Protein 1
Amino acid sequence: MTTYVAPTRDMLFAMNELAGLAAIAALPGNEEATPDLVEAILEEAAKFATEVLAPINAQGDRQGCTCKDGAVTTADGFQAAYGKFVESGWNAMPASPEFGGQGLPSLISTAVLEMWKASNMAFSLCQMLTLGAVAALENHGSDRDKQRYLPKMVSGEWTGTMNLTESQAGSDLSAVRTKAEPEGDHYRITGTKIFITWGEHDMAENIIHMVLARLPDAPEGTKGISLFVVPKFLVNADGSLGRRNDLVCASIEHKMGIHGSPTAVMAFGENEGAIGYLVGEANRGLACMFTMMNHARLNVGLEGVAISERAYQQALGFARERVQSRPIGATSGGPVAIIRHPDVRRMLMNMKARIEAMRALAYFTAAQMDTAHSHPDASERAKHQAMTDLLTPVVKGWCTENALDITSTGIQVHGGVGFIEETGACQHMRDARITTIYEGTTGIQANDLIGRKVARDQGAAVKLLLAEMNDTLAALEAAGDNELKVIAGSLLGGTLALEKSTDWLLATYDQDPASAAAGAVPYLKLFGTVTGGWLMARAALVAMKMLESPDADFYRAKKITARFYAEHVLPEAQVYREAIVSGAGSVLALDETMF
Amino acid sequence: MTTYVAPTRDMLFAMNELAGLAAIAALPGNEEATPDLVEAILEEAAKFATEVLAPINAQGDRQGCTCKDGAVTTADGFQAAYGKFVESGWNAMPASPEFGGQGLPSLISTAVLEMWKASNMAFSLCQMLTLGAVAALENHGSDRDKQRYLPKMVSGEWTGTMNLTESQAGSDLSAVRTKAEPEGDHYRITGTKIFITWGEHDMAENIIHMVLARLPDAPEGTKGISLFVVPKFLVNADGSLGRRNDLVCASIEHKMGIHGSPTAVMAFGENEGAIGYLVGEANRGLACMFTMMNHARLNVGLEGVAISERAYQQALGFARERVQSRPIGATSGGPVAIIRHPDVRRMLMNMKARIEAMRALAYFTAAQMDTAHSHPDASERAKHQAMTDLLTPVVKGWCTENALDITSTGIQVHGGVGFIEETGACQHMRDARITTIYEGTTGIQANDLIGRKVARDQGAAVKLLLAEMNDTLAALEAAGDNELKVIAGSLLGGTLALEKSTDWLLATYDQDPASAAAGAVPYLKLFGTVTGGWLMARAALVAMKMLESPDADFYRAKKITARFYAEHVLPEAQVYREAIVSGAGSVLALDETMF
């Protein structure tokens, strides 16, 4: 069982060189984000991740949670770790200062969140859901509710949840049936929600549920859904806890992974009806939810990065220690550590290259969000908001799909012991398996990408991005370096594939939406593969200038890793292009009975 | 929870049209394999799989096996099912008639084995290991040992195991340390073996272990390993069971999947030494093992096909039943079954197309083996043996690597409930995860492929296969059908990629073995992808002529599925070619410390 060491060197590289931390820190309101502070935060967070969260990760998996009479008990060590987490201020760190957060740029909290997710993904979900609920309340809640709930949710003394899914309403929230009946200043909520992450547990004294439900006179479909805040314990005017609300955890799920995180079936209003308060306008609940969903989607994409990094570290540690067989071609001499075998290196390089590209993409997107939030110029804000919107489904979909492969490769590097649970490699793969599903499946992300993010603005945002890629191509060609030329050739192929596929999509989306949708996931993967390749190419350009620096090894490795990506990963762009541009017919041709 | 229905229609198609069952049945000794008999066997086996093995599959996963004081208890229902399996003669079916088997061609038993593996992979492993031990004894054992063990092993009254791995000797069997000291007509075996599938259990009265060990004077490395037969209970001259041998199951592993199959740590000779008998010549144990390993490798490849089929059936059943969201582009009307959503269709088509190509390849290879075994002409036998040898690592490596993706996609089709263990989709993915590891990892298969199977004969066997592919290309072009033209274009790209990569490998293998090995797994995947594409193209040619037959729907679906493969899967060949021909440098460039 290996531990986790936060890859702060690569995190800082992605923040400084690819996401532009200096520019973010120069935006109004971000004055505190000095390089020293950022390094200090990352160092402290890395320590917490290694010392507090990583050691209980396997225990959480093995022991899981138990539910008895509506009470959920978490695995040994989780309660104590959560106490330390709150006490150290980590829960509050990413939140805005008005209610106790530190108000630091998302780019910084993104690096910190990656550490929580890598060291203990199941644990990290509690904070993620809490911060999502905080965002919804902060943006849409009444002043009374903000004052009542936010300070303790931001601190982490109380946790938050998102209650969206019902058994008949999964990807399709228009089918939500939970009811809200008005009664004075509040509503009575009745209905059953499923898949509620950290819906019930023993780590905090109160749990604040954000619940989607329908008013009695609500129109059908998505335009008749409202958002409510429904606390486990009602909160008195003085902020003290009142009586228990009419909601209960009916059961928890037996899942493939993230065993440390309880996934609850929540029953609201089995007696007199749970008391809830409207958040935002009536029938506009979905719009309120979207506020937090975009954050959550980026965060789940980041989970893909994080769990992949964890799997990589575990595999790398094993490959350095495990001695087996002579090097290829040797006819004498003893066995060597398996990292010296070419196929093991290939697997490790594949993991490493994808992870670095994914991290770059996630951090770059966080920086877009920061600029969209804080730039003084409205047109810059709009431009970066469009880029954030464009990249959010790509980060979510592509980083998580990659994580499935990478965590599986992590097992493969181990050979037979990889399949033994005690080794720890399986847990990462089982944990990763949820990431392409929750907060919207890859298919949902891809439909969002081709529809709202590409077709709606006629490809304007994509074309801005492609123009940036062309600038990088020119810089690569101008550098006069053979390795950068190889990278440029591959990136050119990738950008042309993206351009051609985008043109095809724009021409197809309105008149033949089914054909466009048939290529949606390949388009999302194409987008991630090429954008990741672009960021790796930019990384190689930076690295080329630093090969004589004291940290030369890091930059040499970065340049080689970028070349690996160009030769082994980026060519996938052509497969996706082919599937998008030529493949819709065979996706749709079969009668349903002929499957 | 869905059940399993054997895909006999597609199995018969692959057997008849792609593997050439009629030609196999015409070989000497195969007279019994009439079309009627084959259909009857498949029908009966399908019934057994659905009625007896499939229903206990999930139970085996949930309950697993337990080990107490050296005794292993299997999950509820396994003992009874095994009794029926033996009683019905299914264990004996694939074995040669001399010791009670039916002596049918491998092609037929391959289809039957696919059913066992799909309906209950954990259960099926017991027979697989027994048949492997039977093959080793039959080919290399003394007459005394054959008479003593084989009849009851063939019937299944006794089961067999392969004891190869030790903790320091995984992929590298040269590191085996288990000792064998001569004593009269037998040897005393001492040592500890790990990862012994069905090494101990409660389903049979005796277990016959095939054990690799070293004689006292043995040379180091692989040339000093001998094979021994070591029964759990010694067998008296009259065939009755004697006293317990000095071997014990020390523990069983806690694995990610195949929980129904006990994986034992076996301790030999903790007291006076376990009594074993030499099989074959001293120090030639590895060669004896290879006899059964090739069979076992094909069978594990077949597991990839089988578990993928099971995952596909489960996902398809769900996609037909689960109603969610309007069809894409619709602005009114109700929600529809998700099979009507393009991205779900894409996932199902991807599963279906790969599975059919994998099945075709596995069955085609089984037919090569049958021809190599029974053809009257020695040069034909040699040619087909070379083809069997060439394709064995491809079937093992490519079908199992595909199975990882396909079983994962099976979960994805389910959305959120796919991650819940009770749904059953997770088990298939967890079970599948071992298939790329045991019987030699994908890396080991790939090294075998590029070294012993391609470089050693200077690509002669590959070129024979490429020539057959070119014949198919000509037939596709001559057919005058647009869909077949599309398929031809894609297949041409694939064959050129295979040809070019093979040429590169042949030029590189001797002088730069590390670079060749860096591309070994991509080459294996390229080989499988293209050969699968060739077989799908042949299937489309057959289908084109049958579109007016009473079974027209099957052939229409086959032709469309072949086109899907050509458009969505076969283009991957270019990614592999790029990785092989251009990518070795970046695999090998990084210093070990720079990972």
Note: Chain A touches chain B through 98 residues (CB under 8 Å).
Protein 2
Amino acid sequence: MQQPNIIPPRSGVSFILRQGQQLKVYDIEGEQVSDFICYNLHDKAEYLSSGRTIDYADTIFLTKGHPFYSNRSNVMFHMVEDTVGRHDFLLTPCSADTFRIIYGHTQPHRGCFGNLCEALKEYGIRPDEIPVCFNIFMHVAVDGDTGKIAVRPPKSKAGDYVILEAHMDLIVGMTACSAEMSNNYAFKPIGYEILNANE
Amino acid sequence: MQQPNIIPPRSGVSFILRQGQQLKVYDIEGEQVSDFICYNLHDKAEYLSSGRTIDYADTIFLTKGHPFYSNRSNVMFHMVEDTVGRHDFLLTPCSADTFRIIYGHTQPHRGCFGNLCEALKEYGIRPDEIPVCFNIFMHVAVDGDTGKIAVRPPKSKAGDYVILEAHMDLIVGMTACSAEMSNNYAFKPIGYEILNANE
């Protein structure tokens, strides 16, 4: 078997995923989160939209079978497999501001947001163009009565994965998450692999 | 008393709200929704962010007292008064695609999205720059166990209102919502007023 690519703890990557290709995202050690965002390779103003996707799926918990829509209501990819069944699509990536505001850090890490900014620079994506991300394996509990949210340890165990199949040529940005609460206070790597890269 | 400005049913407006000014948004007849979005007047790449706001507030139900953050984690405004207590910050504005995909309309209305595009054109805001909106008075039920969402009639009655106070100079876009489910199948107007416009 091809070895998956590794995203080291608290870092990010970007790459191109072509229409029809499948991306497998692994939680290598368990209880780790990967913030995921994508853009139409041929028109970067078209991006993954939480609002459109949740509206058309009628759920905030996206899983196997769900199509994921762009801000222009086009399907960007759909989820082919999901061994975990719980991810977040409400929150923006952790950032220096997150660590300052939520954690009270005085010399904050740049977070997944900073890592995505750095990784996506190669494709001309600016920081202001990074919206709400699809946070793979992130477990955000939502109280439907009060609206209260709580970030819990991911339900993913070592070896768990999702597979996403692209419906258009995509620029993808992905991280191994940097925020303590998201990954149960242990920063770990994330694995990924393009399953049919040579077809 | 100054008469409020009226947004006719299924239409939208844009205007400038200066730092320190308060915007009162009325549900004139009851059970109507207003999709609200704003941008930093002096740098339009800074916009209202659902993900940042929900993350810092620890709730998906924003109400009196909550600050609303931009994508750059700056406070754009805070909610000073709220006679309803239930609004939505998960969904994107209804659009021709919404009516096509969710309602099955073959000649769809342009929706709040189309109305915001038209209204914000004056300030050079492009359609791709309209993200998830703060949907005032919109009642979206969320099941915390299954993730399932359901659009319900607003809890607002005739005369209910919210007041928002700007923390920076803002370009504001607002609608009287166009989607049947959001307003209990009766399209109605929305009122608004800048309370301290002449200070």
Note: Residues 5-194 of chain B form one domain.
